Amino acid sequence: MRIWVTGIGVVSPLGRGAGVTMDRLVAGDRAFGELGLFPVADMRVRIAAEVHGLTADLVAPAGEAEGWSRTDAMSVLAVREALGQAGLDPRAKPVDLILGGTTAGMFETEDTLAWLSREPSAITPFKKMLSHPLSSTADHVHEAAGPFRRTRSLCSACSSGANALLLGAAWLRAGLSDCVIAGGADGLCRLTYTGFAALSAVDANPCRPFDRRRAGLNLGEGAGFLVIEPERTARARGARPIAELRGWSVGAEAHHITNPEGTGRAAARVMRAALARAGIGPADLDYVNAHGTATPLNDSMEAAALREALGAEVDRVPVSSCKGQIGHTLGAAGGIEAAISAMAIDRGVLPPTIGLEEVDPACRLVHVTEARSAKLRAVMSNSFGFGGTDTVLVFAAPGHFPDPEAAPRRSVVLTGAATVGALGVCGTAASGAYLDPGPAPAEGPVAFQPADHLELSRARRLDRAGRLTTVAIQAALREGGLDLAAPGVAETTGALVGASFGSVDASTAFMRRIYDKGAKYASPADFPNLVPSSPVGHASIYLGLRGPVFAMADLGATAESTIESAIELVLVGEADAMVAGSVEEASPMIERCLGPICTGIEHRGVRAEGASAVLVEAEDAARARGGRPLARVVWWGSWRGDRPDGLAEAPPPPAAGEAWVLVGRDDERLRALVARSSWAAAPQHALAPRSGDHAGAGGCAVAAAVSALAAGRIRGALVVGGAPDRTYALLLEAASAVAGG
Question: Which end of the chain has fewer CB atoms within 10 angstroms, the N or the C?
Answer without folding.
Answer: N
